[in-house]
Amino acid sequence: MKIGIIGSGIVGRVLATAFLKEGHQVMLGSRDTKKEEVVKWVAENAGGLCGNFSDTALFGEIIVLATKGTVVAEAVKLANPERFKNKTVIDATNPIKEAPPVIGVLQFFTGPNESLMEKIQLLIPDAHVVKAFSCVGNAFMYKPDFDGVKPTMFICGNDDDAKKTVTDILISFGWEIADMGKQEAARAIEPLCMLWCIPGINQGQWTHAFKLLKK
């Protein structure tokens, strides 16, 4: 498939490389395609393309939102909301406020009865947004290795076909998937970012992931 990654930070670059490794065509979208990190990524990833947000949204059959949560709305507008129409959109963002953590707990700019994913879906109402990749650090997004135990990726979204597409991608990336239902479930999934970061911020321990146990 053609994958367009909106956002050229570390998360965007890690996911772009992962999709290339799985045999997909990838365009990494950046505000500045001449940025050092973007030029380096293109040089190190044969076949990888780069473009501005608008070109990347047009290129992608599937689009991944991998910007900071504080700028994702602006990024979508720069990309042109029309270019998301009828496409599966993987939302990897979190609503982290530009403010220091409180005793290791990140601050969000959303409340408990809303989510950034829902705000994004309102910006691109004709797209099929699926929450994924938001509850783990970038080092474990692709082929996470926990001594043979597959961690759980929590997803949600309104369109079942889009979730099936994302589920297939996640399985190829080495994940177990837990579908939490419609977009409102993002209100519970997004705060897992807070929980995941606490050991890292407080103890410098970033090598963990979540596992949902069932019987």
The helical percent reads 25-40%
Strand order of the largest sheet: 3-2-1-4-5-6-7-8
Computed over alpha carbons, the radius of gyration is 16 Å
Profile the largest sheet: 8 strands, mixed
Mean pLDDT: 98
State the end-to-end distance. 35 Å
Report on this model:
The chain is built from 8 helices and 8 strands, in the order βαβαβαβαβαββαβαα. The protein has helices spanning 10-21, 36-44, 53-59, 72-79, 116-123, 160-172, 186-189, 192-203, and strands at residues 2-6, 25-29, 49-51, 62-65, 88-91, 128-131, 152-157, 176-179. The chain has an 8-stranded mixed beta sheet with strand order 3-2-1-4-5-6-7-8, sandwiched between helices. Helix 3 (53-59) crosses helix 4. It starts with a strand and ends in a 12-residue tail after the last helix.
Brief summary of the model shown:
With about 220 residues, the chain is α/β, with parallel strands linked by helices. The protein has helices at about 10-20, 35-45, 55-60, 70-80, 115-125, 160-170, 185-190, 190-205, and strands at about 1-5, 25-30, 50, 60-65, 90, 130, 150-155, 175-180.
Task: Pick out its properties.
215 residues, 34% helix, alpha/beta, eight-stranded mixed beta sheet
